[in-house]
Specification:
The protein is α/β, with parallel strands linked by helices. Helix content is 40%, strand content 15%. A 7-stranded parallel beta sheet has the order 3-2-1-4-5-6-7, sandwiched between helices. The protein is globular, with a radius of gyration of 17 Å.
């Protein structure tokens, strides 16, 4: 194994399940020490940490509600105190709520939608701002988006799409800010996969799958491989990029 990330410290938000856990494993396989965050699934987080440690790297889990932006600086401080530094930030944690409800639906749970915006967008920005102050030179930031942020395709997904589309502009903007330090900033637009988030309406899933070039759900490990590439030295000249790993949804 190449161990391209030996000696690096990575933080994967939402790393207790789905794509986050797959990414944590992939980074560990390349030799990185890995911190993960979780909200309420402490047992699952502990299982992932044990699995990562079994790969011969240091690992730890940190409880963090990303919707509370005031906790971002404390999270980064805790990771740096535990591991001695930070090289890689993977912004994976996200939620999806109220799928299928149109913007004019009188029964929409606005509070839930606001929490989704806080988790998926402003919470990510808060963590990036805190991490950018301590990331070592030549570090990596990779945020996880969705093809829905570029092409919605079906009604009732406007708010979720907005949270992901906003990160595209932010990613491109801060790639300019951090380039003088050799820090690259990129985004991976993930596709349909079983991640533990709220399952989409079956009819919505049917419509989305039928629109793919590769008409199947992805394995989280497939997208984790793309994330790990962007986190590696091999991607040192890639920044401000949006990489689609969604089976051709945006093609």
């Amino acid at each position: 194994m190449s161990q391209l990330l030996r000696g690096k410290v990575a933080l994967v938000t939402g790393g207790s399940r789905g794509l986050g856990a797959a990414t944590a494993r992939s980074l560990a396989d390349e030799g990185a020490d890995v911190a993960i965050t979780y909200v309420g699934s402490a047992d699952k987080a502990a299982e992932v940490v044990e699995e990562l440690a079994g790969r011969g790297v240091r690992a730890a889990a940190f409880q963090n509600d990303q919707a509370d932006t005031s906790r971002a600086s404390g999270l980064i401080d805790d990771v740096v105190a535990r591991f001695g530094g930070l090289d890689i930030l993977i912004n994976n944690a996200a939620i999806s709520v109220e799928q299928g409800r149109k913007v004019d639906d009188p029964e929409a749970d606005i509070a839930a939608l606001d929490r989704m915006h806080a988790t998926n967008y402003t919470g990510v920005i808060a963590i990036i701002r805190a991490a950018a102050k301590v990331l070592r030179d030549n570090g990596r930031i990779v945020s996880i988006g969705s093809g829905i942020g570029s092409r919605v395709g079906v009604p009732g997904l406007a708010d979720y799409a907005a949270t992901k589309a906003g990160l595209v502009g932010y990613t491109r903007g801060i790639s300019r800010d951090l380039a003088p330090r050799g820090i690259t900033v990129n985004m991976v637009q993930a596709g349909l996969m079983m991640t533990g988030m709220e399952p989409p309406d079956p009819e919505v899933v049917k419509t989305l799958v039928s629109s793919l070039a590769i008409q199947r759900f992805s394995d989280p490990a497939e997208t984790a491989a793309a994330i790990t590439f962007l986190a590696s030295p091999a991607a040192s000249y890639v920044t401000g990029a949006v990489l689609d790993s969604n089976g051709g949804y945006t093609a």
